[in-house]
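ok so for the tutorial part 2 we go from a plain amino acid sequence to predicted structure tokens. step 1 is just haveing the sequence, like this:
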Amino acid sequence: MDPFFTLPWSEFFIADKLRGLLSPKKDYSIFIPLSRQEKGIDLAVLLKTTASNNSAVTTIQVKASRIWPGEAPKRKNIIRYKYNTWFNRFDVPERAEFIILTAIFTTNIDRPGKGSKKWYDDCSLLFTNNEMHQFFKECKNKKGKPDGSFGFGFNDLSSIILTRGDMDMGKTRKDFAGFLLKNRLDDIKRKINGEEPNETFPIILN
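step 2 — the prediction. this is what the tokens look like for a chain of 206 residues:
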């Protein structure tokens, strides 16, 4: 192991966010692997089981994207979004039980703040390992071939639309707002408790 330790901002951000959502007062803990040999696992959520004084655990991988502002459409029938993400296709790690896709954005593009929380928000989507595999099966370009990239567009977090990786080029408007991390905390809890998460495929179409 190296005599120093660094952590990508995206992993630190999600670890801190999970720490706020899963209270230590309810015996949840967030762990970060120190070894680079833990490929496919960026974070782990532990729950202390008071009855046996043991801990149950689930594992998470984090993928991050920058945010790009949307351009004004050239035609009225073209839909553009205020915020846009872009991810490269990746191999789904079998050791990670959940994958989180995250992006941080300013809530006011014209007046960006100086780090105050009220100026920033995040779009963090939680997928089970199985859901991520299913997502990539359906992640195709307009020719019906596997797309090497995918992305989402949104104006606010009430609707998060798949814009790249949709062979219908967004015409079906596949909405992933239901995958927001804050909406799926119960699925993490179920997995830790040995239950199956409520997987949400197929995606609801708008």
